[in-house]
Design goal:
Helix content: 55-70%
Low-confidence stretches: 1-31, 458-481
Number of strands: 0
Radius of gyration: 23 Å
Distance between the termini: 26 Å
Length: 481
């Protein structure tokens, strides 16, 4: 998962209090803060933004914060800059804005040393004043940037928080497991932490569902789903958590999928969370027996405004792959561009369109530009596509050094999978055997540099997953060569 995803979900408001809203609610023609809150909670971003904007224009700080939260959700760099400025302006009088600013700076990509230390100060002060979620952001800050806080040992700090009895300490520990890539080795501890926190932290439904799916514990998973459904029915669990659990149940990479249970969960959430329609559409696309094409496209229409980037990514895939409609590269490109920058896989599919010449001619530079973004943000098929491009030289000159670098990165990713793709391993072997000896030192150096650079990004992405406990949109491997 990417840092942009961290930013989007890190600042989604829970319940933004504003005393004057109670008075305003009874005045005809005036915007309603409570309506904005409810709309945001239910995934109706357009309605929430309309009401927040009107109240923000009247000078209400909490509405300004709510509006900035929506800008953060967009993941767009220009919107993020506006959100940061808004939080900063409101921070002197709004503890909530100060906390939001600290969280945003803690997760900000390419942050400066000054911004990291500003984030630390804001988060410490916010925690002392009782703002929630600040310890997890503080842990994220220490884990991502140990060089900026040389006197802080993240594990030791988490142990101190545990000893003091702070509930967030356990969730911070899960972040650390993900960053250290030791999550699977600590499933029992993750389960223990989240069982204890389940009544107060609904994101633990997602963590527990992940543990049970990885361990194929079907009875425990069924009991968890029943508890989730009961809690959701009485309003103790937000619908986005129901959506997240459903997507885990449908993910074949985590264990044996259960698409029918996932479908039932998503249908129950869709009434108050329109974004669940996109998950339903993705589920039906992955498991065609669940419905027909008209129903699938109808789901996308219903959920588009609530989750436009995922909707556009799915539409782009549909026209790219041509499984349920006739393939149309131009329509695919149009939809995929609309999914940027939020959806990493959109860069991948665009790169493949340009690499394969689906629009009438091979466009190698556009292919490299998009595939490289996808690869560096964790799309596991992008390195293989780059290796093919540089090895075959279709539309450009072959580059043995670059072909070696990306083929080795693709091979490393493949070896982490339960069943590595043989064509990935074969291509890496062929390129390595054909690499001229005089180029080997340069190729190894570039490989080390690229691997090191990606390690930092991977750490941020793993932390992001733990922080908001929402899985990536499932994207199938592109098998066609």
């Amino acid at each position: 998962m990417s840092v942009a995803d961290t930013l989007r979900h890190l600042h989604r408001p829970a319940v933004l209090g504003l005393a004057v809203a109670f008075a305003l609610a009874g005045c005809a023609g005036l915007p309603d803060q409570r309506l904005a809150q409810e709309a945001m909670k239910n995934g109706n971003v357009a309605l929430a933004q309309k009401n927040y904007q009107q109240l923000a224009d009247l000078g209400y700080a909490d509405a300004q914060v709510g509006l900035a939260d929506i800008w953060v959700e967009s993941g767009d760099p220009a919107q993020l800059a506006k959100a940061e400025a808004t939080y900063r302006a409101a921070a002197p009088t709004s503890p909530r804005a100060a906390a939001r600013l600290g969280k945003l700076l803690a997760a900000k990509p390419n942050s400066t040393e000054a911004e990291r230390h500003e984030a630390e100060g804001l988060l410490k002060n916010s925690f002392a004043s009782g703002e929630g979620g600040t310890l997890m952001s503080l842990a994220l800050l220490y884990i991502q940037y140990p060089q900026s806080f040389p006197k802080v040992n993240a594990q030791q700090k988490i142990n101190e928080w545990k000893a003091a009895g702070y509930p967030e300490a356990g969730l911070a520990q899960i972040i650390l497991y993900r960053v250290q890539n030791t999550y699977d080795q600590n499933l029992a501890e993750v389960e223990r932490i989240c069982k204890a926190a389940l009544d107060t932290t609904d994101l633990c439904y997602v963590e527990l569902a992940t543990v049970y799916q990885k361990q194929n514990r079907t009875d425990d998973q069924a009991a968890l789903v029943k508890r989730l459904q009961d809690s959701f029915a009485v309003g103790r669990v937000q619908p986005n958590r129901v959506d997240a659990v459903a997507r885990i149940l449908a993910n074949p990479d985590l264990g044996t999928p259960d698409p029918k249970t996932a479908q039932a969960l998503l249908e129950s959430a869709s009434g108050t969370y329109p974004g669940a329609y996109i998950s339903l559409a993705q589920l039906q696309y992955d498991y065609p027996d669940l419905g027909d094409t008209d129903q699938l496209m109808g789901y996308i229409d219903k959920g588009h405004d609530a989750d436009p980037s995922r909707a556009e990514l799915l539409l782009g895939k549909i026209y790219y792959e041509g499984k349920v409609v006739l393939p149309d590269a131009a329509k695919s490109e149009e939809h995929l561009k609309k999914a940027l920058p939020d959806q990493v896989s959109a860069y991948y599919y665009l790169g493949q369109i340009y690499r394969r010449g689906y629009l009438g001619m091979v466009e190698p530079q556009k292919a490299v530009d998009n595939l490289l973004v996808a690869a560096r943000r964790g799309q596991i098929s992008a390195d293989f596509a780059l290796a093919q491009l540089y090895f075959n030289g279709r539309g450009t000159l072959p580059n043995p050094v670059n072909a070696y670098v990306f083929s080795q990165l693709a091979k490393n990713q493949a070896m982490l999978q339960p069943q590595p793709r043989q064509e990935v391993l074969d291509l890496a072997k062929t390129i390595e055997e054909q690499l001229p000896p005089q180029m080997r030192a340069q190729a190894q150096q570039l490989l080390q540099q690229e691997t090191a650079a990606r390690g930092a990004v991977s750490g941020q992405d793993n932390a992001a997953v733990a922080l908001h406990a929402l899985p990536e949109t499932a994207v199938g491997e592109d098998q066609s060569l």
